[in-house]
Amino acid sequence: MGLGKTVQAIAALRILYAQQKLSKALIVVPSSLIVQWRKEIKHWAPELRISTVRGSVADRSWQWDAPAQIYIVGYETLRSDFTSNPQSPPRRTIWDVVILDEAQKIKNRDVEVSSKCKQLFRRRSWALTGTPLENKADDLCSILEFVAPLAEAERPRRLEWNDQTRSRHRNLQLRRRKAEVLPQLPPKVTSKVTLTLEGSQRASYDRAEKEGVLELKQKGETVRIQNVLELIIRLKQICNFCPTSGKSAKLTDVRERLSTLRAQGHRALIFSQFTDLRFGVRAIAAAIETEMPLIYTGDMGPKRDAVIKEFKEDETRRVLILSLKAGGQGLNLQEASYVFHFDRWWNPAIENQADARSHRLGQQHPVNVYKYVCEGTIEERIDELLAKKQELFDELVDDVSMDLRTSLTGEQLFGLFGLKPPAAEERLSK
Questions:
Q1: Residue 389 pLDDT class (50, 70, 90 cuts)
Q2: Model confidence at 428, in pLDDT bands (50, 70, 90)?
Q3: What's the pTM?
Q4: 119 burial via Cβ count (<10 Å: 0-12, 13-18, 19+)
Q5: Which long-range contacts (CB under 8 A, 24 or more apart) does 278-284 make?
Q6: pLDDT, tens digit, for every residue of 37-60?
Q7: Does position 150 have pLDDT exceeding 80, yes or no?
Q8: What is the dihedral of CA 147, 100, 2, 293, to 10 degrees?
Q9: CA 34 to chain centre
Q10: Spatial CB neighbours of 251, under 8 Å, sequence gap ≥ 6
């Protein structure tokens, strides 16, 4: 991540165009990255005409037909416009190249958008991702199914992970490591900051965990993994802010560090998985309003582009607070050299993607990353569990994506609260 996959892909498209091997290419991206892709193509390949497919049904109809070499579309729009009609816009063309950016979007072969991407008629298939692995090696198979050549009359094939697939993956993957590609890049130093909850925040946390565990026990055989996950979310929120007093051990530490960074002229990114005014992005922004922070969340729509522009151009804006889901991929934020993970997604690859907004080509300073963990809480317990899992994946890719629902067994999840799962949940987890 942060090593120029976008620029490399655009350069390859430009070469194909110069060789007269490219008349139409389709680039499928998360909707939040459409503007970024347009900007990069205009900069690196100005001779290529672009049609951006988005908006109303009527707008998309003429955008699909617009004369262009490059068509950029979001995953959700592609899913809507790829219909059972063979003449629907994405289906009626044999694309010279189809590029999937953030290709982990199709890692689940059973979701609709994954199936439709694989059914696109195309001469070349490129998948760009810094996080191709979710929980196990089999997760690569769905991406490989897309990358495998697809003739017009051929249906997508379902691959299984075996020695042959492993060999195919190694032959198809162009793996780029920062140490190899950008030896001049300043180092990234990651620190885990362990904090102690005190006073009302500690009392609120202990009460919520005690009551939550009691509720799980009272459900008996009807308790489900989803109930455990809901309790985990509630406890994580309290680790951010006390719901009664608003106190926060994390906020106290952030304030002290930001004060030092401001005096030294540094700028910072703060990530949270929550966006609300009680526990997430907006709560943090309200609490440090003297720093004049900017916020970036998915529900801001088109305003997000203006926020990024202001942060990059106005040096007095020293703090940008982002939701991890909206701001963790695709952005170039080399202006910041400090990154704070206010709460943890418990997903090493997604956190590393967020770090890469700052630690990427063009960064002039060492990047310092701080990850908060509250002592004696659910945060500490899950952090210890997932740390052991990282080793299982290092052979195939550098960064690993983990989902609590699938990374941990029912026994492990219930065990976080000293409970045993009912028989039905344990069978499902196996």
A1: low
A2: very low
A3: 0.66
A4: middle
A5: 278/237, 278/241, 278/243, 279/237, 279/238, 279/240, 279/241, 279/243, 280/240, 280/323, 281/321, 281/322, 281/323, 283/240, 283/241, 283/246, 284/251, 284/254, 284/321, 284/342
A6: 998 999 999 999 999 999 999 999
A7: no
A8: -160
A9: 16
A10: 241, 284, 287, 288
Whether the per-residue pLDDT at 61 is higher than 60: the answer is yes
pLDDT (mean) for 202-222: 93
Instruction: Extract the tokens encoding 316.
Output: 């007095």
Separation of alpha carbons 123 and 120, rounded Å: 10
3-state secondary structure the chain: CCCCHHHHHHHHHHHHHHCCCCCCEEEEECHHHHHHHHHHHHHHCCCCCEEEECCCHHHHHHHHHCCCCEEEEEHHHHHHHCCCCCCCCCCCCCECEEEEECHHHHCCCCCHHHHHHHHCCECCEEEECCCCCCCCCCHHHHHHHHHCCCCCCCCCCCCCCCHHHHHHHHHHCCCCCHHHHCCCCCCEEEEEEEECCCHHHHHHHHHHHHHHHHHHHHHHHHCCHHHHHHHHHHHHHHHHCCCCCCCCHHHHHHHHHHHHHHHHCCCEEEEECCCCCCCCHHHHHHHCHHHCCEEECHHHCCHHHHHHHHHHHCCCCCEEEEEHHHHCCCCCCCCCCEEEECCCCCCHHHHHHHHCCCCCCCCCCCEEEEEEEECCCHHHHHHHHHHCCHHHHCCCCCCCCCCHHHHCCHHHHHHCCCCCCCHHHHHHHC
The model's confidence at residue 2, banded by pLDDT at 50, 70 and 90, is low
Q: Name the nearest CA neighbour of 295 among 262, 267, 266, 272.
A: 272
pLDDT higher than threshold 90 for residue 187: no
In the chain, what's the furthest Cα-to-Cα distance?
69
For residues 36 and 389, the model is more confident at 36
CA proximity to 408, closest of 392, 377, 375, 430? 430
Residues forming beta bridges with residue 27, ordered by sequence position? 72, 99
Mean pLDDT of 206-230: 91
d(CA 83, CA 75): 14
Residues 323, 354: Cα–Cα separation, whole Å: 10
